[in-house]
């Protein structure tokens, strides 16, 4: 069992190198931006980035004049986010602390970003519920999370000693330093959101095929062709829930109870 939410203070540099300074990281940002572009181009929004990390998406949204509040449990992550905003001459409010506590300090928002946090939490469902309560009626939740389906597929394809661990769900809560210990099942997460009064408007799989390919196969493949395949199938229901990460953009019922 994961006993507490993960703090990345001691892994900031490694996290940046392994997660963001890669083709995989660039692809993730590309699809997130594509899903969020209609909101970025619309009316000025109040936005809470709950667990902001390096805040690339928040910075991109702030460039269009939206009002940003950012928080992170990691002091070092928040310092990086502040520095990135300052370098770009952009303004935001920064709060250090867990999302569960920050939620009590802020007003409901037009858009809440909750990206790559859920899988690191000790209590994912309970915390997500707290976060969704800070979405205004008629507002949006942008949720990105590590996909448990992908963990099962990837480890099964590797076979050998991993198979009994998959059968017994013994891989859960066993993540390495940069491997999330608490991946989530997309179908379950979508049901939570629907039960809480949200409608799923966009459902995107990020890295449907890439992470199942060996280094040798990747080296023998044209990256442009692979990315074209990724893009072709990333929102297809048959394929998207195989992806390494899932992005959900969900709209909350308005004050009249309509979606």
TrEMBL record:
<feature type="binding site">
    <location>
        <position position="72"/>
    </location>
    <ligand>
        <name>S-adenosyl-L-methionine</name>
    </ligand>
</feature>
<dbReference type="GO" id="GO:0032259">
    <property type="term" value="P:methylation"/>
</dbReference>
<feature type="domain" description="Methyltransferase type 11">
    <location>
        <begin position="49"/>
        <end position="142"/>
    </location>
</feature>
<dbReference type="GO" id="GO:0006400">
    <property type="term" value="P:tRNA modification"/>
</dbReference>
<keyword id="KW-0819">tRNA processing</keyword>
<comment type="function">
    <text>Catalyzes the methylation of 5-carboxymethoxyuridine (cmo5U) to form 5-methoxycarbonylmethoxyuridine (mcmo5U) at position 34 in tRNAs.</text>
</comment>
<comment type="similarity">
    <text>Belongs to the class I-like SAM-binding methyltransferase superfamily. CmoM family.</text>
</comment>
<dbReference type="InterPro" id="IPR029063">
    <property type="entry name" value="SAM-dependent_MTases_sf"/>
</dbReference>
<dbReference type="GO" id="GO:0008757">
    <property type="term" value="F:S-adenosylmethionine-dependent methyltransferase activity"/>
</dbReference>
<protein>
    <recommendedName>
        <fullName>tRNA 5-carboxymethoxyuridine methyltransferase</fullName>
        <ecNumber>2.1.1.-</ecNumber>
    </recommendedName>
</protein>
<keyword id="KW-0808">Transferase</keyword>
<keyword id="KW-0949">S-adenosyl-L-methionine</keyword>
<dbReference type="GO" id="GO:0097697">
    <property type="term" value="F:tRNA (5-carboxymethoxyuridine(34)-5-O)-methyltransferase activity"/>
</dbReference>
<keyword id="KW-0489">Methyltransferase</keyword>
<dbReference type="InterPro" id="IPR013216">
    <property type="entry name" value="Methyltransf_11"/>
</dbReference>
<feature type="binding site">
    <location>
        <position position="115"/>
    </location>
    <ligand>
        <name>S-adenosyl-L-methionine</name>
    </ligand>
</feature>
<dbReference type="InterPro" id="IPR033664">
    <property type="entry name" value="Cmo5U_methylTrfase"/>
</dbReference>
<feature type="binding site">
    <location>
        <position position="28"/>
    </location>
    <ligand>
        <name>S-adenosyl-L-methionine</name>
    </ligand>
</feature>
<dbReference type="Pfam" id="PF08241">
    <property type="entry name" value="Methyltransf_11"/>
</dbReference>
